[in-house]
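Re: your question from the hallway

Yes, I did run it. Sequences:
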Amino acid sequence: LLVSLAVVRCQQYPPLRTLQASAALRAASDEHKKEPWASSSQQHFESPPAEHQPEEKPQGPHPSYTGQGGQESEDYESEEQLQHRILTAALEFVPEHGWTAEAIAEGAKTLGLSVAAAGLFHSDGSELILHFVSDCNTKLTELLKKEQKLVQLGEAEKKPIDEFLRDAVEARLRMLIPYIEKWPQALSVLLLPRNIPSSLSLLTSMIDDIWHYAGDQSTDFNWYTRRAVLTAIYNTTELVMMQDSSPGFEDTWRFLENRVADAMAMSNTATQVQSTGEAVVQGLMGAAVTVSNAGTCRAVTAEFLLNVSICFPNPNLENNMEKLSSFVT
Amino acid sequence: MAAAVVPALRCSLLQRWPHRCGPGVRAVPGAGAALRPCSSRVAQDGINQPVIDRIIRVDHAGEYGANRIYAGQMAVLGRSSVGPVIQQMWNQEKNHLKKFNELMVAYRVRPTVLLPFWNVAGFVLGAGSALLGKKGAMACTVAVEESISEHYNNQIRTLIEEDPEKYKELLQVIKQFRDEEQEHHDIGLEHDAEATPAYSVLKTAIQLGCKAAIFLSERI
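Structure:
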């Protein structure tokens, strides 16, 4: 089944570049040293999560060699891991070379691979940037998880929401500091149409993580409002950080604090508006009931009086009956 | 060849929203060998997140809508003779909604964007059908509960196909709710739902609406 899946995908997506590049790569690396190819397990990160991702297996469209059975799956694993290792090594050279193929080439050299390894990736450094962002998000999640554990064990105080959000966003943005010079370039690459699905999904899952650890349990439209607000805060703070030249980025952190405070105030206002609205509606309903009750009261009294007056002879009976029956209706 | 394509299609259909995948950088089709990094959120115990996402999202939307339908019916028929019956069914739906709220938080599922719309549409449907009389309200109940029971049955089938052991708790919940919805359906029939004028037209229209709601809530 794996083979036929690969065949189907092969027909859809051009695998040529990968084949050639990785073939050249392997040839070059064989000359230098024998890399011990790690096999099978789905470990992707240097801070490896304990869980495996079985759902990745059927999905990864490895555009490749057919009919090589066990050999094929091993190569698939190590292909990705290799790319991961190259990109991680390349990060060291980003401050100097920017998010470019040069940085990737330098990274490959430190691993003892040929500079042709840069050919495995796009020349605009998309994969490098996405890899970095994904890495940062994972680090943030680990950090938040650790904090949560401390709170659960009673070793730390539970932070109020605005402080939690502020700290989480600050922690995440601080990871950009070593690369801050070249980050505007990275942002522009992330906005390329080709990269938007990936960068958007990374952004949304990071924001979702932050809210989850902040204790958000909304199951209505608030879910969307909160995430939209936090995304706006994060994006604007990131942009402010790009042009911030204050010592230790204190202007950025102050901006962040103000935006989070604004968001909290806005949500309080919204709650107040809603409760005011509800109070107004209650008042109107009460008024309506009172009026209709008064009307009913009058009708009941009128009917009673009508019945009473029928019993006693009365020269003004017709007039009185007319008046009373108008109240009854 | 067809046999190979079908599972491939099914895989891609189930995993159209990659941001719920686990950590890692995976190769995806594109020019060259573009890597597609995914979220840093780990899958919980290897469950099929996209499938569970859909199931819980659509069920949550369904119970929310059912709540609003009964609210609409009570607003019109609350003081009539069927008021207590509708109230009791409404209470059960409230329990269902509460349960799905819990599941949604536990599995970290996104609610559907259309919730505000289902809020209004459900109330309008309930009130509208109640304005057709008690039988009209019961007809609406029958139609909706029949759709929901069928839908729950489909989900039970899906989960059993996946892995009955892994999803035992969820399966139990859905089975129990399906039984209760079936009860509501039977109560509706007992109260002369079928005697409503234009019963079959009303029923078909409502069930079509339910199918559309289910389709949309799973995806959006």
